[in-house]
């Protein structure tokens, strides 16, 4: 299911998706990922490494798209069943430089630079109160 959701979200041929629909699709993918991969692994005392998690929705749909942060936090909590990372690495890069380096251009990467600047600022604001969990590189 995750690959199909990813295709809908990222392919530009999908066309415009409303901000709220985009959020719910990411939340559905996250919920499935928690239920099928993360929770079973944690129950077996395994280490789980993910490339994105709840902070991504706060940054992209909250700060980037302007959806209500508190609402997203509540929905994230439901989708993740309260699971949160013990450690997060935030790779901080200037959005203009990142855009130049990017080889693949999906629907999100094709957004205007102002969107990516809001997302970056969002990640930095999300990280600020959690210096023990979020390590900015």
From TrEMBL:
What are the EC numbers? Answer: 2.7.4.9
Check the record and name the InterPro entries matching this protein: P-loop_NTPase, Thymidylate_kin-like_dom, Thymidylate_kinase
Q: Can you give the residue ranges of the Thymidylate kinase-like domain?
A: 1-137
Pfam families to which the protein is assigned, alphabetical: Thymidylate_kin
Q: Per the record's keyword annotation, is Kinase included, yes or no?
A: yes
Q: What's the catalysed reaction?
A: dTMP + ATP = dTDP + ADP
A single Gene Ontology biological process assigned to it is: dUDP biosynthetic process
The entry's cellular-component GO terms read: cytosol
Keyword match Nucleotide-binding: yes
Give GO MF terms, alphabetically. Answer: ATP binding; dTMP kinase activity
Keywords in alphabetical order, please. ATP-binding, Kinase, Nucleotide biosynthesis, Nucleotide-binding, Transferase
- Give the enzyme class: transferase
What family, per the record?
A: Belongs to the thymidylate kinase family.
Kindly give the PANTHER family that the UniProt entry links to this protein: THYMIDYLATE KINASE (PTHR10344), UMP-CMP KINASE 2, MITOCHONDRIAL (PTHR10344:SF4)
Identification of the protein by name: dTMP kinase
Q: Which organism was this protein described from?
A: marine sediment metagenome
The organism's lineage? Answer: unclassified sequences, metagenomes, ecological metagenomes
